[in-house]
């Protein structure tokens, strides 16, 4: 058993580092921001100092207390209207170059010992050109819009078609830049074995896997006497690549209530899609869009839902683990980060996989949701592998390897 007092003494003996953080954008509170928040708490607990947080965009909305309290350096792209952020991909390299210049100036004023970036778009390219500073990149994914899911960033709307056209034109140049930018990273951290394979494929780099932290102390099963409803739950940003459309169609086929938590640019399209689908199939399913929920409200949904739908290929998928931590089994596509987080084994089942990205495949899985009396316990025990304390300890070990005393 680990002795907390011995751990604290060991941390006190380690050198205190001045660390710069970098994050693609601060425009909401999703999985990437929760990882950043956990990194900050780990660093402060170990008595390191954080010089500044560098980001391409910041819409000034609250994220977490730890993130909000950090001094920040934001690129000039942030001066553009927020609606144009997704149309500025070709300008991301210049935005990161500007932040790199700011980082170099800050390093001259107060030397920085380590850079930690949390990357899914462009921020891993941050580097002061004049000096060499060790750089850990926590990679959520090599930019999906360049490498793995380009088609998912378009839709059947005029805006979606224009986005796809612009992305197609910019991809060759941006891919070349993104590949070269990987050289600025000393060590890559992958958030799953799926992302680890992507980093190797697209950047030709090795990486260590440290799964994102999940708040397993907060997300917990309900009282054993509580009864779950028959409703299905989905928690997601409402964007094309999340494949919420498949979940809607599957629920309609299965005549099951579907509760959708989240918001995004695809919301209006999905609301219309739900109406059309139900009318087309003559389905009695009820599709409810709940918007953004507080943590307590979200926990209540996890604790009462019959199963959690996870229709997309996700690099990790914190929500699928939050659901399991709350005792809720998961229906997931047999791909991506779900292979790390969901167990489809009769002896220790925490969910069920579907093989094809079709509503029929998902609807078939819905009819086979695990209902064993120990399912909630299996889900909970599996989720504990991804706790905040496990994340912190693994991150701590890698920092010590990168910046030994």
List the defining traits of the structure above:
40% helix, Rossmann fold, 6-stranded parallel sheet, alpha/beta, 14 helices, 7-stranded parallel sheet, 405 residues
Structure in a nutshell:
By secondary structure, the chain is of the alpha/beta class. Helix content is 40%, strand content 16%.
Which architecture of the largest domain would the CATH scheme give at its second level?
3-Layer(aba) Sandwich
CATH superfamily of the largest domain: Glycogen Phosphorylase B
Strand content: 15-25%
CATH top level assignment of the largest domain: Alpha Beta
Low-confidence stretches: none
The order of strands across the largest sheet is 3-2-1-4-5-6-7
Explain what you see:
The structure is a single chain. With 405 residues, the protein is of the alpha/beta class. It has 2 domains: 4-213 and 387-402, Rossmann fold, CATH 3.40.50.2000; 232-386, Glycogen Phosphorylase B (Rossmann fold), CATH 3.40.50.2000. Helices cover 40% and strands 16% of the residues. It is built from 14 helices and 13 strands. The chain has helices spanning 4-13, 31-45, 65-68, 92-109, 158-181, 193-203, 244-254, 267-281, 295-304, 318-325, 338-341, 359-366, 375-383, 388-402, and strands at 18-26, 49-58, 72-74, 114-119, 135-139, 187-190, 207-209, 232-235, 258-261, 287-291, 307-310, 330-333, 351-354. The strands form 2 sheets. Strands 3-2-1-4-5-6-7 form a 7-stranded parallel β-sheet, with helices on both faces. A 6-stranded parallel β-sheet has the order 10-9-8-11-12-13, sandwiched between helices. Strand 6 (187-190), helix 6 (193-203) and strand 7 (207-209) form a beta-alpha-beta unit. Helix 2 packs across helix 14 (388-402) and helix 7 (244-254) packs across helix 12 (359-366). The model has no long low-confidence stretch (mean pLDDT 91).
């Amino acid at each position: 058993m680990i002795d907390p007092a011995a751990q604290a003494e060991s941390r006190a003996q380690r050198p205190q580092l001045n660390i710069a953080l970098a994050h693609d954008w601060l425009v909401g509170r999703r999985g990437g921001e929760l990882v950043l928040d956990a990194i900050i708490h780990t660093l402060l607990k170990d008595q390191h100092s954080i010089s500044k947080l560098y980001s391409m965009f910041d819409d000034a909305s609250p994220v977490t207390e730890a993130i909000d309290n950090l001094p920040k350096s934001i690129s000039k792209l942030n001066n553009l209207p927020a609606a144009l952020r997704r149309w500025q991909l070709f300008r991301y390299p210049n935005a990161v170059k500007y932040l790199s210049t700011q980082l170099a100036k800050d390093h001259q004023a107060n030397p920085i010992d380590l850079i930690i970036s949390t990357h899914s778009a462009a921020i891993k390219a941050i580097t002061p050109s004049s000096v060499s500073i060790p750089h850990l990149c926590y990679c959520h994914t090599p930019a999906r819009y360049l490498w793995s899911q380009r088609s998912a960033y378009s839709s059947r709307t005029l805006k979606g078609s224009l986005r796809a056209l612009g992305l197609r034109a910019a991809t060759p140049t941006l891919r070349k830049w993104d590949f070269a930018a990987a050289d600025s990273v000393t060590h890559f951290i992958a958030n799953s074995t799926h992302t680890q394979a992507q980093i190797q494929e697209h950047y030709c780099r090795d990486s260590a896997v440290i799964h994102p932290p999940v708040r397993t102390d907060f997300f917990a099963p309900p009282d054993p006497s509580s009864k779950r409803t028959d409703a299905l739950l989905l928690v997601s940003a409402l964007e094309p690549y999340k494949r919420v459309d498949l979940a809607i169609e599957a629920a309609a086929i299965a005549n099951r209530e579907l509760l959708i938590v989240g918001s995004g640019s695809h919301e209006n399209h999905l609301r219309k899609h739900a109406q059309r689908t139900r009318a087309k199939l003559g389905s009695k399913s009820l599709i409810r869009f709940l918007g953004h929920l507080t943590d307590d409200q979200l926990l209540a949904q996890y604790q009462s839902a019959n199963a959690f739908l996870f229709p997309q290929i996700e690099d990790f998928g914190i929500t699928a683990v939050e659901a399991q931590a709350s005792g809720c089994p998961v229906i997931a596509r047999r791909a991506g980060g779900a292979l790390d987080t969901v167990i489809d084994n009769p002896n220790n089942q925490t969910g069920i996989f579907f093989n094809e990205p079709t509503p029929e495949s998902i609807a078939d899985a819905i009819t086979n949701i695990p209902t064993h009396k120990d399912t909630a316990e299996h889900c909970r025990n599996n989720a504990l592998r991804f706790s905040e304390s496990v994340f912190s300890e693994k991150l701590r070990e890698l920092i010590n390897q990168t910046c030994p005393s």
